[in-house]
DNA sequence: ACGGTAGTGTCTAATTATTGGACACAAGGG
DNA sequence: CCCTTGTGTCCAATAATTAGACACTACCGT
């Protein structure tokens, strides 16, 4: 099984070409966009496995604000598609904010080809991990109990289940 | 209910004092450690709401590797306690790796006092968010179906439930 | 010391959810 | 064209969840 489609969004044609050549061997299909305007429509149509999004589109504006906006917009609409950000302006605060806003990873230009491929594949792998409902539930139950300092009544209320059910789940 | 205990781990006494003064007004209790050796025992005893962990402990070693090691060790043992990393060596790659390894946030020295308080409180708030089992489940179900391209049989298998049960949940 | 509040552990009986099994049917691939 | 795979839909048996009740403990304020 080959890693699926990658959607690459960058305002520079040169970058798009370079990325395309870099990723060609590793992915089934590479779709490129020079502007995020059509991103949502394109995602709907292409169903990419991962999105590589540049952070700066307005010339002279390098705060990354625009990329961040698109990150949140895309991530809200397609929470299951991992988004990897790429930027020329390596900034720790920006990177942290991006990851906290749902980005799967954050790479800086100039990039290392091998690393970029690895990062994108890793993002896909991570995003497609699905655990059993049972495991998800037991972890969540533990977290809720933790937050309530072991108070089962409040934890049950928080979880939206009855006290007895929580009692049974715990044992 | 006021923001609980903060555990601060940094090899510099001067830093610990400065952080202590900074956080004193905003948290109930500040516990400090000059070395992560006793971190696990201290956490067990103090039950901190959040941990502020410095990344560099060996003089001359500033790769952050040691902090990263402790981050993963602590996070594995106490996955519900948010860990905020702090370092003097602002490095995008390091920050990204830290967040992907479970850190709640990443701040650089010198820090802004207001920002540090905000970051720690935010980490606590985020960590204590607990959603209902029903909501958690429906989101997970959606994710699983997405991964299986809508194939209910495979999705049900992946989730560890029967096909009919998944069928009922979806409607 | 006292009553009030809140939580636990346990039970019952009614209600729901989940399950394996079955069946007809549609789509797709050697 | 058969064979596989998955859907949509039933059924009846089993398991989980629920509200409600009860005695008991722990703590809190007066």
Explain what this protein looks like in three dimensions:
With 171 residues, chain A is an alpha/beta fold. Chain A folds into two domains: 3-128, 3-Layer(aba) Sandwich (Rossmann fold), CATH 3.40.50; 133-170, Arc Repressor Mutant, subunit A. Helices cover 51% and strands 16% of the residues of chain A. The first copy, chain A, contains eight helices and five strands, in the order βαβαβαβαβαααα. The first copy, chain A, has helices at residues 13-23, 39-46, 65-77, 92-100, 113-127, 133-147, 152-159, 163-170, and strands spanning 3-9, 27-33, 50-54, 83-87, 105-108. In chain A, strands 2-1-3-4-5 form a five-stranded parallel sheet, with helices on both faces. In chain A, helix 6 crosses helix 7 (152-159) and helix 7 crosses helix 8 (163-170). The radius of gyration of chain A is 20 Å and the shape is elongated. The model of chain A has no long low-confidence stretch (mean pLDDT 92). Chain A binds chain B through residues 80, 90-92, 95-96, 99-100, 105-106, 108, 128, 130, 132-137, 140-144, 146-147, 158-161, and chain B through 80, 90-92, 95-96, 99-100, 105-106, 108, 128, 130, 132-137, 140-144, 146-147, 158-161. Chain A binds a DNA duplex (30 and 30 nucleotides) through residues 151-154, 161-165, 167-168.
What is the domain total for the residues of chain A?
2
The main β sheet of chain A shows up as: 5 strands, parallel
Give the low-confidence spans of chain A: none
Question: Which superfamily, in CATH terms, is the homologous superfamily of the largest domain in chain A?
Answer: Response regulator
Q: If helices are DSSP runs of H or I spanning 4 or more residues, what is the number of helices of chain A? A: 8
Oligomer: homodimer
- Largest interface, counted with CB-CB under 8 A? A-B, 30 and 30 residues
**CATH topology of the largest domain in chain A, which one?**
Rossmann fold
Task: Supply Rg of chain A.
Answer: 20 Å
Helix- and strand-based class of chain A?
alpha/beta
